[in-house]
Amino acid sequence: MTQYVYRFGGGVSDGGKGDSRATQARPGDVSERKALLGGKGANLAEMASIGLPVPPGFTIATPMCALYYEAGEQLPEDVRAEIAGGIAHIEAVTGHRFGDASDPLLVSVRSGARVSMPGMMDTVLNLGLNDATVAGLATASGDARFAWDSYRRFIQMYADVVLELDHGAFEEALEVAKEDRGFTLDTELSAADLQALVAEYKALVEAEWGKPFPQDVHEQLWGAVGAVFGSWQSERAKTYRRLNDIPADWGTAVSVQAMVFGNMGDTSATGVAFTRDPSTGANAYYGEFLINAQGEDVVAGIRTPQYLTRAAREMAGARATSMEEAMPAVYGELASVFATLEHHYRDMQDIEFTVERTKLWMLQTRSGKRTAKAALKIAVDMAEEGLISREEAIARVDPQALDQLLHPTLDPSAARDVIAKGLPASPGAASGAAVFDAATAEKWAADGKPVILVRTETSPEDIGGMHAARGILTARGGMTSHAAVVARGMGRPCVSGAGSIAISAKDKVMRVAGREVREGDTLTIDGSTGEVMAGEVPTVSPELSGDFGVLMGWADAVRRLKVRCNADTPNDARVAREFGAEGIGLCRTEHMFFDAARITAVRQMILAEDLAGRQVALAKLLPEQRSDFAAIFEVMAGLPVTIRLLDPPLHEFLPHEEADFAEVARASGLEIDALKRRAAELHEFNPMLGHRGCRLGVTYPEIYEMQARAIFEAALDVAERGDAPVPEVMIPLVATRRELELMKAVVDRAARAVFAERGRTVDYLVGTMIELPRAALRAGDIAEQAEFFSFGTNDLTQTTLGVSRDDAGRFLGQYVEQGIYARDPFVSLDIEGVGELVTIAAERGRAKRPAIKLGICGEHGGDPASIAFCEQVGLDYVSASPYRVPIARLAAAQAALKT
Amino acid sequence: MTQYVYRFGGGVSDGGKGDSRATQARPGDVSERKALLGGKGANLAEMASIGLPVPPGFTIATPMCALYYEAGEQLPEDVRAEIAGGIAHIEAVTGHRFGDASDPLLVSVRSGARVSMPGMMDTVLNLGLNDATVAGLATASGDARFAWDSYRRFIQMYADVVLELDHGAFEEALEVAKEDRGFTLDTELSAADLQALVAEYKALVEAEWGKPFPQDVHEQLWGAVGAVFGSWQSERAKTYRRLNDIPADWGTAVSVQAMVFGNMGDTSATGVAFTRDPSTGANAYYGEFLINAQGEDVVAGIRTPQYLTRAAREMAGARATSMEEAMPAVYGELASVFATLEHHYRDMQDIEFTVERTKLWMLQTRSGKRTAKAALKIAVDMAEEGLISREEAIARVDPQALDQLLHPTLDPSAARDVIAKGLPASPGAASGAAVFDAATAEKWAADGKPVILVRTETSPEDIGGMHAARGILTARGGMTSHAAVVARGMGRPCVSGAGSIAISAKDKVMRVAGREVREGDTLTIDGSTGEVMAGEVPTVSPELSGDFGVLMGWADAVRRLKVRCNADTPNDARVAREFGAEGIGLCRTEHMFFDAARITAVRQMILAEDLAGRQVALAKLLPEQRSDFAAIFEVMAGLPVTIRLLDPPLHEFLPHEEADFAEVARASGLEIDALKRRAAELHEFNPMLGHRGCRLGVTYPEIYEMQARAIFEAALDVAERGDAPVPEVMIPLVATRRELELMKAVVDRAARAVFAERGRTVDYLVGTMIELPRAALRAGDIAEQAEFFSFGTNDLTQTTLGVSRDDAGRFLGQYVEQGIYARDPFVSLDIEGVGELVTIAAERGRAKRPAIKLGICGEHGGDPASIAFCEQVGLDYVSASPYRVPIARLAAAQAALKT
């Protein structure tokens, strides 16, 4: 019989020991045990197996989740016996019995998927309480107030999670109870008050649910386990999975565990901690705790928690004592557990713990989520500490996350109108229009407007709006609040717990220090300092030395793929070279043509009636193009620069306004009517498949000849002053050997002419983009003429999939949702379709010309998954946009390490 | 040393014997000997080797042509000795000596490529005459007039061909000489008149050329051989090669042969003949001859020639005696030569002969060009005579040429306003606007206007215009005139020699029987009867029995590929079934949507804001689609019918006019402004790559569901009354397995629902078009869901080559001219690019589902070269437009015979 229930604690660990190698908190990168028991279950089993104090329990494995849905959202009856065995295990270890009216066992029921989905699925605590056992708990704990408070909490949570009743009514009843007695804090309520509240809660359940609150503890357990499996398909869980590429068929596990109580008086406490700072990566314990509280009090941000260490407390200037000061012995024990865990898992850990009457219990450990900056620092530190190798350090940093570090931060010298200060919950700076609800954030962002989402506190329902916002600001909640955790995961700057701010979502206004910020007013937040500023604050470029530089150095030492950039201007080229670009992989010449000063000459060229007319216009453009190329060559001196000759359909350059036509008429001496007629002739039904690319060169060779001449003249000019560039002249949209042969002849002829005029030469290559399926298939023939191939995977994706990037918006969203493409194929290469053509072309090209240089210059050149594919195929380089060059360097190193 | 000169005649045949198997007169299908000696040289060698009376001579082989161009358009000096050897051979056989003033040898110099290029290259006759030898010829022949006439002709021809002087001046001098003497015919000029004319001609040469006419006969020969090689690259030869797919690097051979004279008085004659009627294929000698004339007099159409046989003369009601009557002995000899040749070559022959003073000489034989009708009849007759096998008969008929037989002919019962009658030179009927020059014909045809090219006589310069015209009408020239031969080759209807018509090309008018036809007036010609009619005459469908039916029967017996049709209407389906279609391979449902009665409902569906709105419109369309399908199913009862679900971008159906918007607003209850906004939203930049095909089905499954329901309801309706159709439901534009899975589920659900409602079922298949490169590559996955693949090679060509068919006009012409694509890839499949994807998809599809049904439904399904490829890949069927179904049947048989 398949085993579904795995016990842990009390010297038992059915899940076995293993998983001692640290793993990344990224989908797909998990052990078999995590796949079976979920992250939480696997880690509980692991902690139990290495002797850490874990409350005993058992985990119902993930395959049960599928069975639950197959059975029409209910648990199969035959799992009851196994669950009973699990309860018996807990009873044996704790000495309490489930449903025992004199000394009851209480349990928690929690979800746990392969990868952490914080706050996405449901949890039930204090399960096992009923009208009989509440008295037993009071007796056994010697604390009637605690017993009735637990029962109250349990009914409320069970009603919410399992019975799916409206939780507002329960909160209101609690508020009324406090008001009636003139209290403000929950803790002021006496045992008797709480007992009365329980009676009220039970009446509420019966009124809304139609049945009395379940008193049978096994029925309670059965219901809670089912509800947790059921939460796997909640809307918010589905949204989270979609945003994080988590497959629906993984399912969740459910862990049932003996309750321990952090709310049993002042020798009890509960807390969350990271073994290092998840925001900066600093090697110092980092966390929060609350005395006499349950875990959800910390996470929910309802009470402001206390610091873990004295140092942190002092740095923050906080008064409330730290755990180090308040409970020195337990703190020492906790510190030793931290050390054990970090050495065991060889990674920074995110921990939940509870102290029950001075006894420390570990509730959870997992690889901690961290900012890119922290990931970088922790990886570099751990490698330097000898805990992990440099190769492991490289693998630990998600290249995509580097994006956070590479974008500008606030200019330190700029004036700041600071209106509030909160916690630096997720680093980076952002400006945008203040919006007060997630729906508006999504809507405005969809219209291209940057927004800052401002909320009293965030909840899982806000995920879409948080994703759409440039930054998040909350008035309540700590560094581990929902807002902080989610924002760090998304790489969004976040300031949390800015307590001086009063927010009215209804009136769409926030008030702070006598000032008002209304919806649409610009705000700036700095998630690295916690500052909130009115208006927009200028930014500066990121610092690329320190840990970043160290890790990049290690990455460069192991990667095989060269990294170039896509750059059309000297400025882009300069930024990219600073980011480590080793040349230009794609310099688009048409962007130069759009320059306001030149567009009239370009239009004159296009609209000319004949060769002579075109040549007049081309003569005007030649010196302009020459100086364009010279400026770029200077920045890239000594490095290869791939220049693509004119590619887009000519009609893209056409005049639209009357004034434009008049200007061209003046410049060319042609009639406006003739120009308009010619412009109309140039209209195309499918310009992407029209008269563009080398088809322009075949029909108007004089255009390519002018461009080639400009390239060689510029290269000679630059070579005279310093290092010569290595121009790689690229012919676009080739489908046949013959096209390239014809166009290569044009380029070679221009080179011979310029070299003869100047009496000097430069090295150059002539090659082609492979961006049509036919070109990939005929790569063998084409390689006879091509010295390099550059895979233009944007167009290759368009033609291979038959999808226009400009028109895909109408259906591509639905396509990804319905699982037709796993990701947008214009963002991450469609490896099994487009990728096969790339593989074919690489093989056939190399078979004909073994030394052929191969690169990729589509958007995919900056996408880590696509870069891994390029490494597999053995391309020579990838070319990415300037800001993605470091991402590509790191991804290339990771790809090299994987092969 | 490489041999370049090959002798023949007088018992010698250096070229050896061979080539006894008949070969098609099609490029690529030639023997090695023809490649070496050209068609004419090879046939002369062959005739010599089988003992036929051939004037002795030698052939300079085709490799010399390349050497001529390599040397900068001149002959290499070292070939002089070989040529001298050839001349010596002729001298030895004839007993005349080259340049001998007392009894000179005269020779002809003719071109001859691998395949016949009638009239395209130059010929020089009577070479060897000069001021001295002309006297010798007069003495030896005893006919001074003949000698001086030959010298006159030679100077004129040499001046034209070798010296490239304007031939108008010579013609004018001849006309003046006749006028001065009051003559109308050349034959009225005496020896003295001609001697004076020679003096005038020589003066003209010296004046224009700057040097006296060459008197050295070896210099004459050297010049003429060079000029003939030079004519290989003349503009008209290049045009002909391009139109007929003849490679430039084949080159021509040059044959030098002793002259024989048909103009040595009334016992001499010259003629051309076919061993069977090249127009009808009838097994009767067919030809023309002229007494006392040189060969060019017949071909040029200057004198109206006489019939060869008495029967032909009597049938035509002509007075001039036939050769059978005028020269019975020589005619008998000729008839025996015909029989020998036809049995030797096993094909109908096209022959040139000359009778010199009762002695018959064979100048040329080759496989005769013929009309499609004749090709069919000759192939069937020869197979039934036992001369060739049925398989050879199948191979003898060019499937493309069948097109001539399959199109409508003039309705015999329609009124005809016959204004003239000429020779039935090339069968078929055509109507169009009269035009009087080739350039206008090309221009108007390019604008989509059908034209009839009307010329006094045609010349090789007219080729482009003849190709562009629907039909050709000439006032002069016989059945073997330039116009007739070329028109038959092109499959254009032609009426030649309509002598009652007076044409003024300058004034753009023809006058006949007191009436005027001006440029642009509509004419109809019937190339099968020779009738010329004013206005347009209605047509009737062709007769498909007789020889056509016999050959089709033989073809059907050997072909493996099934042939279906592309048909969207019951009428198309009916025509196709009569033509032998074995089902429908592509029924496009969108064409039904354009119906005026339905377009409003279609527009309402497209412009609906939501599902409910679309469903209202779809409910209106369902009964319409059901009756569409039922009508087609009835025609195709018992046969498979592949129905493609809605494919084109929705905006193709959008309203354009205000009235259309108003109509949709009325039908849907929506505001006009909202409709216009929605219509604007539907605009696409690249609709070919946009929201179309199964993307419509994925986003709006209700559309495909309605169509599937209509198909199954119609199938059940038809099955109730007779044979059930076999619907094959085809999902367009699939790129992934998942798309097909989703859409197949929609279709299967509709089928289950309809079958349940009706309590009956029909067999059906669900499959997909393979029309995107990704689909071809992922054919293995897709075959898991697809029961058939239909290769949509139109779209597959567009995406594989990255060329939009709608926009390709701007460059595809230049692309074919520059040799980038050998033929328009939308007409003939790009086998090495698109073909590889078809091959990959077929292999991968079969590997996953061995029984998968494979077909092709692009335009290529009716193209013989593409069909040969489909046979190679092992597809199950091809689908062609109705009129091309017989072409596809024959091409499929030929393809099967070749494998």
List keywords for this structure.
homodimer; 899 residues; alpha/beta; 8-stranded mixed sheet; 8-stranded parallel barrel; 36 helices; 34 strands; elongated
Folded structure, characterized:
The structure is a homodimer of 899-residue chains. By secondary structure, chain A is α/β, with parallel strands linked by helices. Helix content of chain A is 45%, strand content 17%. In chain A, helix 20 packs across helix 36 (885-898) and helix 23 (599-607) runs antiparallel to helix 24 (611-635). Chains A and B meet through helix 27, helix 29, helix 30, helix 32 and helix 33 of A and helix 27, helix 29, helix 30, helix 32 and helix 33 of B.
Q: How would you summarize the topology of this molecule?
A:
Two copies of one chain form a homodimer.
Chain A: E1 5-9, E2 12-13, H1 32-49, E3 57-60, H2 63-70, H3 80-94, E4 97-98, E5 104-105, E6 107-113, E7 123-127, H4 133-141, H5 144-161, H6 168-181, H7 191-209, H8 217-230, H9 235-243, E8 252-258, E9 269-274, E10 286-291, H10 295-299, E11 306-307, H11 310-316, H12 323-326, H13 328-345, E12 349-356, E13 359-367, H14 372-385, H15 390-396, H16 399-406, E14 409-410, E15 418-421, E16 423-426, E17 429-435, H17 438-446, E18 451-455, H18 463-468, E19 471-474, H19 482-490, E20 494-496, E21 502-504, E22 509-512, E23 515-518, E24 522-526, E25 531-534, E26 539-540, H20 546-558, E27 562-566, H21 570-578, E28 584-588, H22 590-593, H23 599-607, H24 611-635, E29 640-644, H25 658-668, H26 672-681, H27 694-699, H28 701-721, E30 726-731, H29 737-758, E31 765-770, H30 773-777, H31 779-783, E32 788-791, H32 793-801, H33 809-817, H34 834-848, E33 853-856, H35 864-873, E34 877-880, H36 885-898
